[in-house]
Amino acid sequence: MNITIQEAKNYINQEVTIGAWLTNKRSSGKISFLQLRDGTGFMQGVVVKSEVDEETFNRAKEITQESSLYITGTITEDNRSDLGYEMQVKSFEVIHEAHDYPITPKNHGTEFLMDHRHLWLRSKKQHAVMKIRNEIIKATYEFFNQLSFTKIDPPILTASAPEGTSELFHTKYFDQDAFLSQSGQLYLEAAAMAYGRVFSFGPTFRAEKSKTRRHLIEFWMIEGEMAFCEHDVSLEIQEQYVSHVVKSVLENCQLELKALDRDTTKLEKVSSPFPRITYDDAIEFLKEEGFNDIEWGEDFGAPHETAIASHYDLPVFITNYPTKIKPFYMQPNPTNEDTVLCADLIAPEGYGEIIGGSERINDLDLLEQRIDEYQLDRESYNYYLDLRRYGSVPHSGFGLGLERTVAWIAGVEHVRETAPFPRLLNRLYP
Description:
This protein is α+β, with helices and mostly antiparallel strands and 430 residues long. 29% of the residues lie in helices and 28% in strands. It folds into two domains: 2-96, CATH 2.40.50.140; 117-417, Bira Bifunctional Protein, Domain 2 (BirA Bifunctional Protein, domain 2), CATH 3.30.930. The protein has twelve helices and 19 strands. The longest helix has 23 residues, at 124-146.
């Protein structure tokens, strides 16, 4: 019977066959231990000399790293294993014998591993990160579907940008100028006026020349947009969403979290409501913490966000940023028109902003004024203005950066390990 490693727990004391790759091996006299993987998990195969023929035992000692096999044996319980079971090998067939696999069981430099990303993905820790990423995506669909959001796919090629064109990739669209999308938000706003609650999940691009551990050139965004929704309600949905995702990973990715040596004690505390601090209060707090160089009206950098987040056990919302450092579409704060109704959600443990969101301007005259103030081409945003001409309503939305969220939940230091094939400032290969 052919099964996967993930299914092996259902076949205790039964003989099965698994298609797998050899990640490593070791011998102890009359026993060989084969470390196997098949994409669904990792498992040990034990080859005992007295229980197999001589050729099989000798072949087990000779087989090379990353060779592919059909391996047959009996699944047995093993409390020493993370999985709780292993295979007592009876025979195996080599499908392909690999030679000189470049990523050996030793330390390699990051650049070497990134050059071999297509192979590095096979390692146990990288496998765990991608499994956690997959769980976050699965939990995202569950959450939005439970709240009756409709998934809408915005275009990747656009004629305009929600936040200006200074950090966009320019291309030609036949005889027109076009840009790779930095957000699907403007299109989701249009969709929200048709379907009420909508979300998207897709790639976005920023031509920002940054090399920090928090930045990628291409990254995936999960964006939600809601009609008849004011800012406070949007914040509640955001914290419920993040809480749902964290809970799902804790419930379904224990093996992966353990493989990454992730301390889950802080994750276990994550549940709504989250603390909130205004931008004004954040400035005052930072000055008290010794950040005397920060002035009102400036955006926060990584050290500032980390200092604020370290004051809380949970993700924290920083609300009501100055109008001048935020995009044109954000609704003014009625109690202070120098600020807008917006919030950034800062993850604990130094992982920075994972969500940005706001209430959107719903007044046509004010939006036209903002477009002019930001020196944007009004004709390019005519469809966006139509949303205020024909049945405008209060509406709010947000965008979550998937890779930063994976980095935080998985406890990975650099976002380059949270994308299967990351695009960095100086990396377009593989």
